[in-house]
Amino acid sequence: MLETTIRGRAADLGHGLTVRRALPHAQRRSVGPFVFWDHAGPVTVPADEVRQADVRPHPHIGLSTVSYLLSGSMTHRDSLGTHQVIRPGDVNWMTAGRGISHSERFTHPDSFEGGGLELLQSWVALPVQDEETAPAFAHTPVSALPEGRAAGLWWRLVAGEAYGQHSPVVTHSPLFLVHAEAEAGATLRLPGGHREQAVYVVRGEIEHAGSVHGAGDLLVFDGGADALAVRSAATLMLFGGEPLGPRFVWWNFVSSRKERIEQAKADWAAGRFALPPDDHDEWIPLPG
User: Fold this and answer.
1) Which residues contact 79 (CB under 8 A, 6 or more apart)?
2) How far is CA 82 from the centre of its chain?
3) What is the pLDDT of residues 186-224, one digit of tens each?
4) Shortest CA distance to 62 belongs to which of 22, 24, 35, 81?
5) Which run of H or of E encompasses 38?
6) CA pair distance 33, 7, nearest whole angstrom
7) Whole-angstrom Cα distance, residue 180 to residue 99?
8) Which residues sit opposite 58 in a β-bridge?
9) Which residues are within 8 A (CB) of 271 and not within 5 positions of it... i.e. 6 or more apart?
10) Is the N-terminal amide bond of 141 cis, ω within 30° of 0?
11) Smaller CB count within 10 Å for the chain: N or C?
12) Contact of 32 with 196, CB cutoff 8 Å
């Protein structure tokens, strides 16, 4: 059953980098363990503006960040010493745990190939017992991810379990994340088996219960296997899982305890977070 529909809020991060943010939202703070959902691009940045578009080192606690590109490329560096280029279909899964910092850098023209940079980035809250786990990073190439087909449909299982498949990406709680491409006239059924599910429309149009939804819409469902009619060729992201309980979210910090976020603020302001060893000459200051 459809519980709510959220229209992603547009934001300009500067230098032409536009983002649609669907989570968190006043109508819905999370879907399963997912507490943040951003869709950036597609965008092409002129060569002389690429440096300004870089995301400088910044901190996280209490979550895993998930980066998934539809086109383009970017370079991830973090305080563990990771230096990883991510390309379309690959999965960058960074577990912040008790604390990590990282940057995202772009190069011209590689980062904007294939029609421009287009990125889906989400945050997955960690179970309470894992919030202070050691930070970690895992890169899974597209070639390792399961795929499936049905009439007018193709999908890739990015993480978790869905449609009888299991992704090799290691997670801390039951969830699923699926990239689907659908032809006009196809019917897409949600995986089911998870308490909370959502469909984000990257492009195209889908219909549910007589209502049509387009690019930037996030449809949130309960755990049933609802069916969606595809009105025009569509790119869709499906995600959800088991909810973990309320979380405080401030800037890049997520925690079940407000005092832990206050500690993270103080630690970043005081320089107690390590910086990426090959990207430590600048960083994003604490807001305010």
Assistant:
1) 57, 100, 101, 102, 135, 273, 274, 275, 276, 277
2) 19
3) 999 999 889 999 999 999 999 999 999 999 999 999 877
4) 35
5) strand 34-43
6) 20
7) 33
8) 102
9) none
10) no
11) C
12) yes
Instruction: Return the biggest CA–CA distance within the chain.
Output: 56
CB crowding 124-151: b at 16 or more within 10 Å, else e: bbbeeebbebebbbebbebeebbeeeee
Q: What are phi and psi of 190, to 5 degrees?
A: -65, 150
> Token pair 């989400």 is at which residue?
122
Q: What are phi and psi of 268, to 5 degrees?
A: -70, -40
The H-assigned helical ranges of 14-169 are 50-53
Contact 248, 23 (CB under 8 A): no
Residues 180/155, Cβ–Cβ less than 8 Å: yes
Q: Full-prediction pTM beyond 0.85? A: yes
Give the three-class secondary structure for 54.
coil
Burial class of residue 34 (count of CB atoms within 10 Å of its CB; 0-12, 13-18, 19+) = buried
pLDDT tens for 37-83 read: 999 989 998 888 888 889 999 999 999 999 999 999 999 999 999 99
Backbone angles phi, psi at 97, to 5 degrees: 55, -125
DSSP letter (8 states) at residue 48: G
Contact 200, 237 (CB under 8 A): yes
